[in-house]
Amino acid sequence: QVQLVESGGALVQAGGSLRLSCAASGHTFSSYTMALAWFRQAPGAEREFVASTWWNGVRTLYADSVKGRFTISRDNAKNVVYLQMISLKPEDTAVYYCAASYRLTSTQGDYGYWGQGTQVIVSS
Questions:
Q1: DSSP labels for 50-109?
Q2: Residues 36-64: tens digit of each pLDDT
């Protein structure tokens, strides 16, 4: 089992910054074999890929909509993955989910473990 717990969601003004965290745990979780990712789901929309990072933090993937504004990173000693978000826009408003997979991918179906989500609201 792998447990993922997100935190850091908040109400922020457009142009502001926010950092999300996701703590991973569980007897089957290994920082050194799993990719960690962020997805998001806006009201009335499908859940979409945001960013992912391979276990070594060197290989990363980003959605085009967040490139240059969001940065994914991880601390394997703490089993935590972060999503640093800058220049936030109202369209970034969504519930942000953390997910874990044995592959570095942007495909939802490849992620077998999910957190409960944390709400980010960007006001204009």
A1: EEEE-TTSS-EEE-TTTTTTEEEEEETTTTEEEEEE-S--GGG-EEEEEEEESS--S-GG
A2: 999 999 999 999 999 999 988 889 999 99
